[in-house]
Amino acid sequence: MTVSRTVCLGFAAVITLGTLLLMLPFATSSGTWNDPLVALFTATSAVCVTGHIVVDTATYFSTFGHVVILSLIQVGGLGYMTATTFLLLLLGRRFGLRDKIAVQQTLDREGLQGTTGLIRSIIALTVLAELTGTFLLMSVFVPDHGLGRGLWLSFFHSISAWNNAGFSLFSDGLVGYQASWMLNLVIPVLIIFGGIGYEVIFEMYLWLRDQIQRKSTRIVFSLNFKVAVSTTLALLILGTIAFWLSEYGNSRTLSPMSPSAQFLAAWFQSVTTRTAGFNTIDNGALSPTALVITIALMFVGGNPGGTAGGLKTTTLRILTSCTKAILQGREEVYMYQRQIPPSLILKAVGVAVGSLFVVILMTTLITISDPKVDFIRILFEVISGFCTVGLSTGITAGLSSFAKLVLVATMYIGRVGVLLLMSAILGDPTPSAVRYPEENLLVG
User: Quick one: which of 6, 89, 365, 438 has the fewest CB in 10 Å?
Assistant: First the structure.
């Protein structure tokens, strides 16, 4: 039982438990036993913090069902190993070397020192962010739904946003609040910081603390921080501009809105495509250009170490830096005056190739099973599931049972990671001292 197998089987166990709970009669609003496929799809989507749905979450499930979904989102957002480790710490169990290695691989961090403190910090940060989001969203939901219902809506959407899940208790998503400045500020901020990575947030906190205390020591930001922040800002700005340019003349999305509402909708769309899954406009009404933009942003995703999915910004930057190095005739890859080790380059290539293979395979399978559905919408659905986004053009519920099972597998692979899943299947690599002679071949 390797670490990778522990993580993969752990996620599968949580999904299985969630499926059984969502099948119970008191998990549905009708009070009848739930369809096993609906329960499986919803549980997988919640644990994988995707947000894909085949039924209306707001009306199909009861309050108990909503609590189960929210619990699965929280466990899935934290990660199986993080949630399990914190529970073991609460129970007083000793934190062993194997546990530290598992957390290290799950969070994709260097070294084993400070792992226990990191887990506590992640839990504290998560609780603080979700409670703050709940408090701020109450000003949006309480006036419309009363104190009790408004508090529950604020709590649910705050947790869903921080964990980049995209589940909503409104049948039309957040379309009814597309002109609310508070909602269009709070939800995107929770999404961005939830998906930017815990290490980045902690570095940012230390820098702000030293600035406030006016310490003379100067913090040197890590390469991970520089790449994550700069790439995130660039994608958010470019995404907002691209969505506005492609949709401002679309009478089914931005055209009927005021200029300020158009900006809010374009901004929200740019943020939510980074693996969040909320919507303030109808994604099924997007133009072909906007669909392609959305697919590209979804595939990139967020940053490592957070609740986001996708290829990850760091992988994208490594691959683009490799291209830049080739064009400049260099054999070394540099970013921010730092050389990227070959092992990271190989890992980035492996993630990219593996991700493309999964997307192509799953898209092909659904195309075969549902040939009448437009290819662009199938591709949109698959990338949304693999990158744990949850956005849909409205075809999910109408897909065949086989296609839904394919999406279940896609969401699971996207959450645990292609390389981690392959490691779980093949086992840990065996070190070899064999070296082979080099030989060139034609490329490109």
Answer: 438
